[in-house]
Write a structure and sequence with these properties.
binds BIS(adenosine)-5'-pentaphosphate; 218 residues; single chain; 15% strand; five-stranded parallel sheet; alpha/beta; binds magnesium ion; Rossmann fold; globular; 8 helices
């Protein structure tokens, strides 16, 4: 099963991909997490991506595509995976479809989490992430049991540098301009599932599970 989580910055892609990945025992492949890891490790891809990420712009397709194709060819993806943050351009979607097709696989569902812009800004300004395992928290909505520490692995929590309000607004504009065609791409294939992402975390997770049980439209 190959599932894509789509949505604006802060829509809950990482949060829901994490839940689904545990329930379905499929790897969670988050392009943003892979890029941030590459930057920490000072790899060629990380260094070339840095200035785009800082400004909230999309990293050039050639970098993200190389990184994701390498990731999906690893053994743990044999049964499928949950994509989070990829694809984000029409070109990325087409290359992914072709790469999966070569292995006799395809995308099963693209889940689009819909959340109003003002809620997105609130979510991102209060978000904290575990530096070790990337689990997301929110200072008010879903705080860790011990302030500053991850419940799951006791890693240190930090705030992403692109979560400043002005960068967040830029990221929202980039989503509307560059990722909207990806929604149409999956809608035209009958694979897009729209989910109200403005429910609590568990409510959204329930909606996703029931949507995945429903048959796809022809
Ligand atoms: P990326 O890391 O993918 O960031 P993003 O798409 O901007 O999305 P976020 O990670 O900010 O939000 P999310 O939807 O995962 O929300 P989360 O679950 O954390 O990309 C970062 C950058 O990398 C890009 O700007 C670009 O430069 C580059 N990049 C990455 N992929 C690329 C690609 N394919 N092509 C080119 N460039 C690429 O939740 C947010 C907060 O809300 C958390 O605090 C959470 O606890 C809370 N929350 C979640 N759900 C709920 C809920 N239902 N109710 C209340 N609070 C909630
Ligand atoms: Mg994320």
């Amino acid at each position: 099963m190959h599932i894509i989580m789509l949505g604006a910055p802060g829509a809950g892609k990482g949060t829901q991909a994490d839940i689904l990945s545990q329930e379905m025992k499929l790897p969670h492949i988050a392009s943003g997490d892979l890029l941030r890891r590459a930057l920490e490790e000072r790899t060629d891809i990380g260094l070339r991506a840095e200035s785009y990420m800082d400004k909230g712009e999309l990293v050039p397709d050639e970098l993200t595509i190389t990184m994701i194709l390498e990731r999906i060819h690893r053994a743990d993806c044999a049964r499928g995976c949950i994509f989070d943050g990829f694809p984000r351009t029409l070109h990325q979607a087409e290359v992914l479809e072709k790469a999966l097709g070569e292995q006799g696989k395809t995308i099963d569902r693209a889940i689009y989490l819909e959340v109003p812009d003002e809620e997105l800004v609130k979510r991102l300004s209060g978000r904290r992430l575990c530096r070790t395992c990337q689990t997301p928290y929110h200072v008010i909505g879903s705080p860790p049991k011990t302030p500053g520490k991850c419940d799951r692995c006791a890693g240190v929590l930090y705030q992403r540098s692109d979560d400043r309000e002005e960068t967040v607004r830029g990221r929202l504009a980039v989503f509307c301009a560059q990722t909207a065609p990806v929604l149409d791409y999956y809608e035209n294939q009958g694979k897009l599932v729209r989910i109200n992402g403005d429910l609590g975390i568990e409510g959204v997770a329930r909606e996703i599970v029931s949507a995945l049980k429903a048959p796809t439209s022809p």
